[in-house]
Structures are given as structure tokens and as C-alpha cells.
Write a structure and sequence with these properties.
Layout lengths: L1 H6 L35 E6 L2 E6 L14 E7 L5 E7 L7 E10 L12 E6 L3 E5 L6 E11 L2 E5 L6 E2 L4 E5 L5 E5 L15 E9 L4 E9 L10 E10 L6 E10 L4 E8 L2 E13 L2 E4 L3 E6 H12 L4
Length: about 325
């Protein structure tokens, strides 16, 4: 049944734009589609002199039988927890559902140019949605809604007003359904939480051939982080075996956010190394330092293993 539905040609409502209104990029010599179902959202597969491309359908607002485009989106934060209620003007009818999308960016201030792509957020049969734990502090959000039924859709609404979660603050309903920001505690600094500790910290080592060792330290990204990790900070310190509490030297190195391993060269034999990895995030001028993950590397035990292998007991 699913294969049949997917393979069945679908004619979306609306019509293709006039060829005279298409740009050079719209009329590229390429068969990018063969039917409307190959095009996203309200786009139709439109043929032109040099091929076929997906174009935004025209005349959707006058096509009979389609649900109206939702309007008047309001976003309100509840007093406790990261729970957000979203409402819009729309009807309730059998086999009618709403698709909610969101886009976002990180930062203190809202910037239209920094917003990412639209992403699906929620599906509802009612003109409202409740998002629990789906939004994070330190980010700005916009929402839009499309009403869809068996006949199709007229497309998405205009974006909502920019919205960001507050810490120590809450929203109340204002005139005409607008959201009014009310300060709950003036002394609470609005700031997202630092990243969690890196996960699954492991280390392997082997001799380098010159009396020293080379260690490979690996980890995984933190499980929880309000903001994207900007980079990692790696610490390693050498300690004498007979004085395990006394560090000889602490080394530090930054690692890019998309790298989750580091090679530690020139590790000394018969030494205990204390290794730590910390995730860092940036929020405006504030650097958020996460909790460190730690492990030990004992090159003395490695030396004993290597010696026993090279000089086995008779």
C-alpha cells in the first residue's frame, strides 16, 4: 500500500508560473523532476524549453477546497520548566492536521540572517501545540504553520515573532494575545547551561621507539548541551609513581569541535598521567566551561607488559 501511494503520480493544486517570469537558474537545462510529488512542499514540477524544475505553485489562495493558511501565531512560555505553548488561528475538521516548523540560531540578540533552515517540529490535529523540553536557552526561534488535508495545502503561514527562552522570567498574556515578558527575579542572569562532560573517555598507548610513549585519547560529544560545543580543551599532567599526588607539568591543548581525539606524544616511561577533556561553548562574550571528564594512563604498567613479552621466562 505504501509503495503504491508513493509511486502514484500526484498533481498538486495550483499552476506553474509563466515561463517569462522564470529566472536563468529556474530554466536550467536539467530534468530535476518528473512529477509534482518529487518537489518539496507546495512546489510543482514545471516544464520549460530546456527541462523540468520544481517551482513554487501559483494561485493557491484562490484554489477552492483547500484549508486556509493559519494566522496569528503566538508563542508563550510557561512559568516552570522548558515548556512552550504555541497557538494559532485555524479550524478543526476531520482529516485536517497542522504541520509546525521551526528555525533557530544561537546568540544574545536576534538576527534574521543567522537563522538556519526550517525543520519539522510538531504535528497536531488542533490549532495548538505544546513543546516540552524541545527548546534550549541561548537560542532564538521562529515558527510557522501549514494546514493540510486530503486536497493539499495552501502553504505555510508567515513566521511568528522571534522567541527565546528565559531563565528566571516568564510570559503572561497581553493585549490581543501578544506575549508580555514579566521579570520574575531581576538578579537571575539569563544564560544557558555549560555543556556536559564528554562521554566515553578512553586512552590507548604504545612505545614510540625512542624510550617514550604515544597516547591516543578519544571521547564522544557531551550528551547534554544547551549550545553547540565551540571547541574542546585537553589537559594532561605527569606524576611520579612514588609521589602520585604531585604533578610535574600540566599541558593544555585546544581541539576543534568536530574532532574527538588527540595524539599525545613524548609520554615518559614509568609515569602516571592524569588526562582530562573539557567542552567549551560561547554565548556572546561569555565562555561556558563544561564539567571535565577524566581518566588515567600508567606507562609503568605498559613498560612491564612490554618487558615481559620481550624477555619471557624460560
Amino acid at each position: 500500500c505504501v509503495s503504491s501511494c508513493v509511486s502514484t503520480p500526484v498533481v498538486k493544486p495550483g499552476h506553474c508560473p509563466n515561463a517569462e517570469s522564470l529566472t536563468v537558474f529556474d530554466t536550467v537545462c536539467l530534468d530535476a523532476c518528473s512529477q509534482d510529488s518529487a518537489c518539496p512542499q507546495t512546489h510543482k514540477c514545471c516544464r520549460h524549453d530546456c527541462g523540468a524544475t520544481c517551482q513554487e505553485a501559483q494561485g493557491l489562495r484562490t484554489v477552492p477546497g483547500l484549508p486556509d493558511i493559519p494566522s496569528n501565531i503566538t508563542v508563550m512560555e510557561r512559568r516552570r520548566g522548558r515548556v512552550v505553548s504555541i497557538h494559532w488561528l485555524g479550524q478543526e475538521a476531520p482529516r485536517l492536521f497542522y504541520l509546525l516548523e521551526q528555525r533557530q540560531h544561537v546568540g544574545h540578540r536576534f538576527s534574521q540572517d543567522r537563522l538556519g533552515p526550517w525543520m519539522p517540529s510538531h504535528r497536531s490535529s488542533r490549532p495548538s501545540a505544546t513543546l516540552k523540553g524541545a527548546l534550549k536557552p541561548g537560542r532564538w526561534y521562529e515558527f510557522r504553520v501549514a494546514a493540510v488535508d486530503a486536497n493539499g495545502t495552501r502553504g505555510f503561514s508567515e513566521p511568528s515573532q522571534p522567541f527565546t527562552l528565559s531563565i528566571g522570567k516568564f510570559h503572561e498574556s497581553g493585549p490581543k494575545g501578544t506575549a508580555v515578558l514579566v521579570t520574575a527575579r531581576q538578579n537571575v542572569k539569563q544564560c544557558p547551561k555549560p555543556p556536559g562532560p564528554p562521554e566515553d573517555l578512553t586512552v590507548q598507548s604504545r612505545p614510540s621507539g625512542n624510550g617514550t610513549y604515544r597516547g591516543l585519547l578519544k571521547w564522544k560529544h557531551p550528551r547534554n548541551s544547551d549550545l553547540p560545543v565551540q571547541k574542546y580543551k585537553v589537559f594532561w599532567s605527569r606524576r611520579f609513581q612514588e609521589k602520585a599526588a604531585a604533578s610535574v607539568l600540566v599541558n593544555k591543548q585546544f581541539v576543534p569541535r568536530d574532532v574527538t581525539q588527540i595524539v599525545l606524544n613524548n609520554l615518559q616511561a614509568h609515569s602516571l598521567y592524569f588526562l582530562q577533556v573539557q567542552a567549551l561553548a560561547q554565548f556572546g562574550r561569555d565562555r561556558l566551561k563544561g564539567e571535565k571528564a577524566a581518566t588515567f594512563l600508567d606507562t609503568a604498567s605498559m613498560a612491564i607488559v612490554i618487558l615481559s613479552r620481550s624477555n619471557p621466562n624460560p
